[in-house]
Each structure stands twice: as C-alpha cells, then as structure tokens.
Known about the structure:
This protein is of the alpha+beta class. Strands 1, 2, 5, 8, 9 and 10 form a six-stranded mixed β-sheet that branches. Strands 11, 15, 16, 20 and 22 form a five-stranded mixed β-sheet that branches. α4 runs antiparallel to α7.
Amino acid sequence: MSARTTMRQRGFMMMELAIGLVLVGALVALLIPLLAMQRDSDADRKDVLAMEQARAALLGQAVAGGGLPAPIQFAESSIGAENASSHLLLTSLLTAMPLGWAGALPGQALGVPHVSSLQTAYWYDVQPALRADAATAFLPKVTGTGSSAMFFSIIDQFDPDVNTQMSTGGYKSQLCRSLNSLQAIEQAIRVEAVTQVPPETTGSNYSRDYLNVTLPRVWGAGFESKFTWESALGYASVALPTGRDSLTNVVFENSAAAAFVIVRRQPPALRRLDRQNAVYWQAGLSGLDKALIDRDDEAYPPSVISGDRGFRVYENSSTSTTDNPTSDSADYAGLVRSVSLGEFAQSLRGAGLCTKPAEACKANQLFVRFTNTVRSVPQDASAAAGLAMRWSLVDLGGTTTYQTGDVAQGAATDGVCMDAFGTDTAATAPSRYLRLSFISPAGTVGYTSGNSWFRGGLLVDPDSTQLSADAGVSRWRPLTALSAAEAGKTVTISCTGSHAVTSATGELALGGALPTCSVTQLP
C-alpha cells in the first residue's frame, strides 16, 4: 500500500470522526433541552403528587380538628432575597401566621413534604374564618354598650382587620357555620353586583369592594392570557378587558373564592413569569414579596385591590407549566392546588359533618326550638283549654316581621335558624327582637288592650354585661350564645303554666295568671 493511499485513508477517517463529532454534538444539543424538559416534567409530577397529598391531609385535618391549620411564617431574621417568603427557610419555632396572612405549608404537622423540587417551601393560603386557632375562636364583634350596643355587620364579622376572633376554635359546628356564612356572602356579592350600574359601584349592600372578605381566590381557567410580564419590575401585570376600568370588578368576575390554596413557589432568582406574583407583587427585583415588605400594614387593607399589595388571587390549577429555552417572558413555573368553598362543604358533608339541623345555620344565627304546654284558665273555673303560642322575629319597632310561626299546645317545633342581627346590609346591623304571644280561645293574638306580646326582647344581647334576672323578658341570650363554643347548641324556649282568659269573651286577661317561659342552650 502506497503512502499516498495511507494518507487518503487517514484523511477519510479524520473526516468521518469530524462528521461523527458534529452529529454527536447535534444530538447532544437536541437532547439537552429534552433532558431539561424531562427533568422539569419529573419535578412537576413529584410536586403535583406532594401537593395532592397535602390537599388530602388538609381536608382530613379539617374534619378531625374542626378547622384548617394556620400557615407557618418564613424566616425573616434579615431582609434580603435569601429570606424572601418564597424561600425554604421557616421560623425555627414554626410560628403560625396571624389571621388573614398566607405563609408556608405546615407540612411537618400534616405529615407531608413541605419543600418543593425547586427547593422552596410550598406556599399555603387559607380563609381565616375556617382556621382552627383556639386562641381566636369566633366571637361576634359589637360596638357600643348598654342600650346603644349593636352588632357589626356580617361583612365586618369576617374581616380579620375588624374582628380578630373569627376562627372556628376547633369547634366543628362553628366550622360549618362559618362556611355557610362565607358561601352566602360570596353569593350575595355576585347577585347584588349584577344590579349595580356599573357593577363595581360602591356603597351597595354587598358591593364587590367587600372582596377582601372572600379571599383567597383562584383565577378562572384561561385567564392567564390576560397577564403581561413586567421584566423591569419583576412581576406580572394584568390587562383589564375592554369596557372594564375597575380591577376589583375584573377580579371578582374572573375568580372564585377558595377554602385554601397550596402553591409551588419558584425561587426568586429564576425570574420566570409566575402569574402568582399577582397575588403579592414583588418589590422590584429583590425577590421579596410585598407581604414581607409591608408586614406592618393591614393584612386586609380597606381597598385591597389598590396600590401594589396584590390581589391574593392564585393561578388556576389547570394552567400548565412551560419552559422556553430562549426566553423567560412567557414561562410559568408555579403549580396550584386549591379547594373551593363548595368543594370544601361537600368534603365535610361526605365525612358526616355539617349534616345536623343546627349546623345549617350561619354565624349570625341561633338554632331555636319552642315547646308549649300553656293552658288557659277561665275566671269561672271551668275546664281549661290549651293555648296556641305564636313566635315572631321582628325589628325594634315591630313593624317588620322576618320570621314567625305557631306552636300548638302540647307541641314542640323541630327548630329554625334565627337571625340574631341583620345580614341584608353591610353598612348596618340592627339587632333582632323575639316576641312571644298567645292566641286566645276567641282567636285574637295577644291582648285586646293593644299589647300584642307576652314576652319580647333581644334574641341575643350585644352587650353581655346587661344580662340580669330578666332574661327572657327583655333579652333572651347573652353575646356568648353566638360564640364558637356555644353557637352549635340548640336554644330551647319552653313555656309552661296557664294564662287567664275572660269568661265572657274568651280574651286573654291582663290581671290573672301568667305562664312561665324559660330558655336553655344545650347540645
């Protein structure tokens, strides 16, 4: 073989090697993104499984503990990106966040992972009225004393900036009552807002400006297209749809209230488009959430949608993660698992909770039943006959009747949820009066003199210091009757004895025998 042939073969081999290296390089270039995508996909699946486990654990804890656990505070020993609230570090004592604040998932207590594949702690937000904090068990908020004492509105009762005692306290009946109230408030805002022109008009009974009461929320499916990445600011902004100039209105129309939300946060350094940043907008490029920067501000400011505090509205669970190797402007690395108020209610009922009649009441209601064994006493001492009793829930002047019913002699009612204060307006909360009357043998209700009731007073006295021996005469129950510890019990009003009637006309007589009515509140 000649030297020339040998050189030609060597050159050919070098060319083959070069081509092979080029092909291998091309394959590696193609495989690296695929491997990265596979790695991200595996991480997503791992996190989805962990978040589903956390979701199930939270539902189980709500059933077992009479409410949901509190979020855990992140470490904040120094203010810097390394201690941002999307970071792994938690307080060493696992400090619970105050009512109304989001934080880290309490994975240690739930027995589930609390760190994601991105090495960040899972973010956890919960409706404060569904938390089981024993120290903040529900007690209605009131203003004034004595005769001027009055309940705050139901809207304010569920605003943690107004009422600091609004959790279930671990009482399962209060969990049901709080959930019933939140669902009613959410529905009332939706129904009321339809009649407003424009829909975001303030000052109405259940205006969308009361959106802060029903946080956290979750965006509707597909709403992610409305977000735009603001690279200079480090967060995503939302574009208002045509014809809408109020962010409050847009948020409410395109989101739904949740009992709790679990989020896989991304490290601040990744700087991808995490639309969940619309919840707590970040402070520039520091990676710090506004919730951390503004820790001294109100958790639920009066105008929660204004300024740069964000919305506490989370990404929809159906939004898929994306990874563009050439641009971060359209990427989303977050994951969300949430439970709506309706799903939460179904879960509780499936576990046997919230099925008793008293558990159908709201937080401003008592479950009241009546028993009546009162008989008439004719003045001529002839045989006595039974007297029917009529109960009525009325306003202070007695001009408006909200609820009423009759109880035959010797009968007991099944019970009814009865409002202790009005919920039809968010601006005022007038107390409700319960009045008892007896129907005479002649068929008249009350006395012919014009006195139409035998007993009448506040169903629940907002000023518990005013209770005295006249309970059931001018007041029936103290403020604590609506507390988390007592509100799930049945209030029974029993009237016994006899009432004098005139022998001539069969009307109720004022000066004769009177029945006795007692009130108890028992499980």
